[in-house]
Every structure is written in structure tokens, then in C-alpha cells.
Amino acid sequence: MAVVWFFLTLHKTPPRSHLCLLPFQDRIPWLCKLHDILLRDIASGQHVVLACSALKKMYRDILIRGQDGAPQKCGEPYQVKLFVVHLSGTFEVISGRLHKRKGHFMPPELLQSQLNTLEPPSAPENFIQISVDRTLSEITATIQEMLKVQ
After folding, report:
1. Are 125 and 60 a contacting pair, CB within 8 Å?
2. Is the residue at 137 inside a domain?
3. DSSP structure string for 51-84
4. CATH number of the domain bearing residue 134
5. Residues of the chain with pLDDT > 90: what percent?
6. What is the rounded end-to-end Cα distance, in angstroms, of the chain?
7. Neighbours of 133 (CB within 10 A)
8. Whole-model pTM above 0.70?
């Protein structure tokens, strides 16, 4: 039996202005909304891939547990089992790719601040780290293999 994974894309991104990081007070409700969407989809039996930047461990905790990041309460039927795919690369490689994008919401000028904010996943988080130096087909094949064992 094949497992179908749904790729969750958001048509509305969190509020922000050009060249401005999303303020903390705006980021938390957005992450909580993503948590609620993940819970809803899990409850309906779906497997979901969510693409977003959860640069800090606290943000990933909110995706798993909701607003307060507290452990699951007894009797709660569903929980988010988060598997993080951490794509890593040098500033030069990522910057070069950002500059080639047309019409993307992430301006290349914000890259350094994003890298400064990044808290790479670490144990006991459930994650893999993949270098962006690999080809797209190698990256996707690695992710697909890891999803089979999750």
C-alpha cells in the first residue's frame, strides 16, 4: 500500500514588508495556524509535507505542540510528528540561487540575517541535514527515502 504525502502550500504568507523580517509577535500566530492545519490533516489521515522556514527550535516546537510549545496533554488524540529536512549550504551558494529567482518573496538581502537567526536542528529533534550542493534529484530521492521510514 502506497502512502500519499500531501504538499501543503500557503497562498497567504505571513504579513511583512519588503526587506523586513517578520516580527516575533506576528510569527507566533502564523506558526500556530500552521500547527492547527497540520493537526487537522493528521486527524483526517493525511500525511503532509509543509515547506516553511522554522529557523529557531522554538518555532519548530510550536509546529509540533502549538502556541505554548508544551508537551501533549493526556487524552489528546493526535499530535504532530515533525520530521525536519534541513537544507544546508554556504552563503555564496544560497545567495547565488536567490539572485537567480524572479518574483520570489524572499529578497536576497535578507539572507545573512536569516543565517544569523538559524538554529540548526539537533538531537533529539527528528531531522536530516542535506547539502544544497547535491543535485535536486539527489536531494528529493534522499527525502523520499527518509519519508518511507518515518
Report:
1. yes
2. yes
3. -----SHHHHHHHHH-TT-PPPPTT--------E
4. 3.40.50.300
5. 33
6. 15
7. 11
8. yes
Number of domains in the chain: 1
Q: What is the pLDDT of residues 105-134, one digit of tens each?
A: 778 888 999 899 999 999 999 999 999 999
Q: CB atoms < 10 A from the CB of 42, how many?
A: 16
Cα–Cα dist 86/66, whole Å: 21
Cα(94)–Cα(111) distance, rounded to whole angstroms? 8
Q: Which domain holds residue 54?
A: 23-149
> Is 133 contained in some domain?
yes
Q: Are 121 and 57 in contact (CB under 8 A)?
A: yes
Q: Is residue 138 part of a domain?
A: yes
In a domain, 59, yes or no: yes
